[in-house]
Amino acid sequence: METRRLRLLLELSRLGSMRAVADVLGTTTSTVSQQIAVLAREAGTPLIEPEGRRVRLTPAGRRLAGHAVTILAAVEAARLDLDPAAEPAGTLRVAGFATAVRAFLLPVVAGLAADHPRLRVLVREHEPAEALALLACDEVDLALTYDYNLAPAAPDRTVEATPLWTARWALAVPGAAGTGVTGGAPQVFARFADEPWIVNSRNTADEDVVRVVASLAGFTPRVAHRADSLDLVQDMIAAGLGVALLPADHPVRPGVRLLPLTAPAVELRSYAVARPGRLNWPPLALMTRLLAGRATR
Predict the structure, then answer these.
(1) Does residue 96 contact residue 125 with C-beta atoms inside 8 Å?
(2) Would you say the pTM of this structure is higher than 0.90?
(3) Nearest one of 170, 186, 185, 141 to 233, comparing CA atoms
(4) Which of 66, 202, 232, 284 is the most buried (most CB within 10 A)?
(5) 224 touches 230 (CB < 8 A)
(6) Are residues 226 and 203 in contact, defined by beta-carbon separation less than 8 angstroms?
(7) Which of 190, 172, 179, 170 minimizes the C-alpha distance to 238?
(8) Closest Cα to residue 36, out of 68, 82, 77?
(9) Count of C-beta atoms within a 10 Å radius of residue 75
């Protein structure tokens, strides 16, 4: 049953005249009559009966008009809920890498509690490939991902990516080993060609960057250890287990030194990724806008 026919029936129950319905809805009496007749065929029972020169609803018509109130209200509620300008409400599921969750998503979520109490955010920590897989099977609504300028992710036309922030990365080495090391990224890498390298265990992006810069320096890095936690990577470096990439602005503990990487620079690029057409959903539109705003501060 089409909602426009239900609306005609509801107005007829209220106004009692097809002419009045036509006047109110800006159509013709014959159109109202034809659409009510179609609705009756869809319902499988007469919905109106003559009453002098007018018509009235049959018992079935009155029951269907009662249902129409509920149906049309639900449709209007759904329309408002999906209106990009509507108040965000419902449950938003987000999967993202740890840095994005800790530094960007959590502060945004904290602010939402007061400003948008009808919006609930569910958070999952995942590396980009994992988050994108969850997005593809509709287990999350938003994926926070990253790639590097020296190891860009392959274009994917099945998703929409909104750029968020970029961050310079450096080479983290044991403190004493970094003394006197200068030059561009290949020269810095070359100084540690014989050292073990530490890379991510659940994503290959940083390993790809390490191999790209190492190739410019003329060697193949020996990947010995894998870890996801940046704090754990620092512990491993301080313990003398190897060298690794870390954010250039990341606080370092005693025993770890960050060496700048230039010519070429190493930059992490982050994104908010959603399925096509979903960014008009108010909760998703709001979250993407807030994350982008926080990233530009």
Answers:
(1) yes
(2) no
(3) 170
(4) 284
(5) no
(6) no
(7) 172
(8) 68
(9) 13
